[in-house]
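Running this now, will post back.
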Amino acid sequence: MYAQEPHRVVFLIDNKSFYASVECVARHLNPLKTPLVVMSEQENTNGGLILATSPTAKANYGLQANVSRQRDLPQDPALIVVPPRVNLYIKRNLAINTIFQRFTAAGDCWPYSIDESVLDVTRSWRLFGASPLAVAKRIQATVHRELGLYLTIGIGENPLQAKLALDLFAKHTPDLIGELSYATFAARIWPLTELDAVWSIGARTAKRLKRLGVTSMYDLAHLPPAALKAEFGIIGTQLFALAWGVDRSELARRIRVRAPSIGNSQVLPRDYATQEEIERVITEIAQQVAARLRHHHRKAGRISLSIGFSYAASAAEQRSGFSHSATIPPTNQDAPLAAALVRLFRKAWQGQVVRNVAVSTGHLAPDVGEQLNLLEPVRTQLHRTDLNRALDDIRTRFGFTRLVYATSLLQGATAIARAGLVGGHNGGNAYD
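Update: finished.
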């Protein structure tokens, strides 16, 4: 019943090897011909993780982004290794999306990630070319001319088809463009047997599908929807739609989040084995989350703490960590949040070496008043609220490190070191 489905013209655009390409262009080098990798800081990623590789580095040395580590680097002086500059990548992403907006109607360009964007050009493509393919090539040429970067583009009649066209076809064609439509979907997608190569199907889902006798996308498309829903729940319905290339999402429509959450997480710079150091990090993260709650004018009525063990501890314990939650009186103050999280940690921790810490808050409510208690003077409670707000104002104006708790200077603390990071990596200089 494809005739009843929405037929649009959607581009899903990927900036090819984005981080590595930006670094190549900044050095006046060709992104497609230069062997270059972006290597994260050792202290932030357990010995150094390759965040991005140029196509040449990937082809010549077999290096893979977010998989290969510093130990995998070949001893070849021709290979250029550079640190990340996330602020620069953000700046380039904004410039790229500004170009995209020239080719779309207002509100029809959406960043999908730092290196991917979705463009609905249904209302605008005829202004820029004889066909969607011609418009895609024009966008590629414009970005390359102005920024020196190469784009890979998937074209489809909905966002799902555009994503599959990008991942499965565009990255392997000479012009870096792939196309899918309702008319061609079955012929091009159903023969695929590597299910985990298809967007949204992970290795575990592929194994579960195999147990149901599904070994190709054709099998998935012809499995009864009821069987998929019985096995996977609502995800089963989504898998069935995926196999038929159906996507009815309206990207411009804002989705109301049923259970919003505010949180923060860290991969620690090393293994933490002492209770004092682990609790110091938990307290710092609690302070950061409290500041975010105040920024969004929310209070949290529930907290969650997730602790990830080190590799050795995970192997010894036969589990990767633990997670616990608790209901608390609604608050966005540093001390109550930190105290509640430390209590959760002490109840569950049994001396394991820790490498990851994550905090999230839920049951969010508007910050419209102060819930006083009878155990301390009213003046003290109001003073604490005013102090935290003053602290937020100072950090907003002058930077986080201008005013920090003294505990952040103690061994194991990470707040100051992480203040200059963006997404856990070196922000660098956006103007280089």
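Residues 277 and 412 are 5 Å apart (CA to CA). More later if anyone needs it.
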